[in-house]
Amino acid sequence: MAPKGKAEAQTFTFDEVACMIAAMNTAGVVLGAKHYALMAKLDGSCTTSSFEHKFRAVKARGKELATELNDGTATPKTPKTANKTETSTGKKRGSTFYAPRYLRSPR
Question: Is 0.85 topped by the overall pTM?
Answer without folding.
Answer: no
